């Protein structure tokens, strides 16, 4: 007779999924104003184009075919842009399964700016991308990896803002976020660096603990980095920090190549 015992981890997985979903909703809530701006821009184009056509018709001077074609093309492009933003927000907010598919790290990184693009402009932060063109895929889920990079970039924005208001901080301090990807032997690497306030070794050692945060009360839940850590580790990845107080921070994520 053969007796086998197993541990039922379905409840643990369900709780982890719910926690990740809560983190996404928090992110979308914080970025709601930026996403509204991204949708308002194409709506303004549609409004201006429609007003132009109505004005010309009321004057008894319908637009010429070439002009009407140009205006119609502007409307179509604006609708496609608004639709793209809405679709991306819907996809990001859906509850992702802990799936393993072949993902190019560059794709979730680029999609981060569909959510945070306006936020970066408002905060006057320059983004420098250095994404390898021949990057091999990793086994992960696009949606969950995007959440990791959204969390890292959001924290970088906060760190840069924090540095700019320090009593003895330089008035002309660089406001920069850099993201690069590359292959390192049989690993795929993504690095997210910022010119922010940096952190001490003590903070680095606690950063991935649930509910740990250096932000003021009401400004952070302390879940973003711990959720990101769990996602990365779930795909056999690693996440390391290099930072010094006042000298910014670099997060290095590595994943095994998909076989």
Describe the structure in your own words.
- The structure is a single chain.
- It is globular and about 80 Å long.
- It has seven helices and seven strands; from the N terminus they run H-H-H-E-H-E-E-H-E-E-H-H-E-E.
- It has helices at residues 10-30, 32-58, 65-93, 106-122, 142-164, 201-206, 224-234, and strands at 101-103, 126-131, 138-140, 176-184, 187-194, 238-243, 249-256.
- The chain has a five-stranded mixed beta sheet, covered by helices on one side.
- The mean pLDDT is 80.
- The chain is of the alpha+beta class.
In short:
By secondary structure, the chain is of the alpha+beta class. It has helices at residues 10-30, 32-58, 65-93, 106-122, 142-164, 201-206, 224-234, and strands at residues 101-103, 126-131, 138-140, 176-184, 187-194, 238-243, 249-256.
**What percent of the residues sit in helical stretches (DSSP H or I)?**
40-55%
- List how many beta strands DSSP finds: 7
Q: Profile the largest sheet.
A: 5 strands, mixed
Enumerate the strands of the largest sheet in spatial order, edge to edge or round the barrel.
Answer: 2-4-5-7-6
- Rg (C-alpha, Å): 22 Å
Question: Are there runs of 5+ residues with pLDDT below 50, and where?
Answer: none
Structural class, judged by helices and strands? alpha+beta
């Amino acid at each position: 007779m053969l007796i086998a015992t197993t541990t039922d981890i379905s409840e643990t997985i369900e709780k982890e999924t719910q926690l990740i979903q809560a983190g996404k909703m928090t992110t979308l809530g914080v970025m709601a104003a930026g996403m509204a701006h991204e949708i308002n821009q194409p709506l303004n184009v549609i409004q201006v184009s429609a007003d132009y056509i109505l004005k010309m018709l009321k004057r008894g001077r319908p637009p010429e075919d070439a002009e009407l074609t140009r205006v119609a093309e502007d409307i179509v492009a604006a609708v496609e842009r608004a639709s793209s933003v809405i679709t991306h927000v819907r996809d990001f907010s859906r509850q992702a399964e802990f799936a393993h598919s072949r993902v190019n790290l560059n794709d979730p990184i680029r999609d981060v700016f569909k959510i945070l693009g306006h936020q970066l402009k408002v905060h006057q932060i320059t983004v420098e991308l250095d994404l390898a063109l021949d990057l091999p895929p990793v086994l992960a889920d696009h949606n969950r990896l995007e959440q990791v990079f959204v969390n890292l970039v959001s924290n970088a924005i906060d760190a840069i803002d924090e540095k700019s208001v320090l009593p003895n901080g330089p008035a002309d301090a660089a406001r920069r976020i850099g993201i690069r990807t590359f292959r390192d032997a049989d690993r795929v690497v993504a690095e997210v660096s910022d010119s922010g306030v940096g952190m001490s070794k003590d903070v680095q050692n606690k950063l991935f603990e649930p509910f740990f945060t250096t932000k003021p009360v009401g400004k952070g839940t302390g879940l973003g980095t711990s959720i990101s850590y769990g996602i990365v580790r779930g795909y056999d990845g690693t996440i390391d920090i290099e930072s010094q107080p006042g000298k910014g921070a670099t997060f290095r994520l590595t994943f095994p190549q998909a076989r």
